[in-house]
Amino acid sequence: MAFWLLLAACLYFAVMAVRLTIIDVRHHLLPNRIVFPSYGIAGVLLAGAALAVAFSGVKAGMPDAGAALFGVPVLGMAAGGAVLWLFYFLLRLVYPPGMGFGDVKLAGVLGLYLGYLGWSHVFAGTFAAFLFGGLWSLVVLAARRGTLKSAIPFGPFMLAGAATAMVVLPA
Predict the structure, then answer these.
(1) Residue 74 in domain
(2) Is 105 left (phi over 0), alpha (psi -120 to 50) or beta?
């Protein structure tokens, strides 16, 4: 059961990422009608997978199943979502033109996914987002397609960074 819930969560992430990337590139907008439901959908699927693993471990008599049963992955999801949301909110607070509030809201969703996997994923996904965004900015500047004042949508880089951390780092 856990496998199917995780697969559904990953498929939802992929669909959400493609839709948000297209919209953000075209309109510099991450719509609430996609981001807000993603909290619930990702939360239910990932928490369901964590609990399914815990209950299967308890049924099998595994000694460490108790930690999973008390929601350690679920707590990691909640903490990852809260920490990433707060980090991006602080960035928005410090320099509002540099970060849209849609990015802040998306950060919480990505924190759920990355927090499910662990803190190394949270840090790596966040670092990768800024690395990808910075490299893209350098390409735009070098190609003379923009200036230091040019606005670039950051949502696609956040999504790419999270996806990279989920795929590259071991779970």
Answers:
(1) yes
(2) alpha
Residue with tokens 């990702």: 42
Residue 152, classified by CB atoms within 10 Å of its CB into exposed (0-12), middle (13-18) or buried (19+), is: middle
Find the domain containing 75 and state its range: 2-119
CA atoms of 150 and 140, how far apart (whole Å): 9
Q: What is the pLDDT of residues 56-70, one digit of tens each?
A: 754 555 555 455 445
Q: Is residue 165 part of a domain?
A: no
Nearest C-alpha neighbor of 42 from the set 10, 70, 88, 15: 10
Distance of CA 162 to the CA centre of its chain: 5
Question: In this predicted model, what pLDDT tens digit does every residue of 149-161 receive, in sequence order?
Answer: 899 999 999 999 9
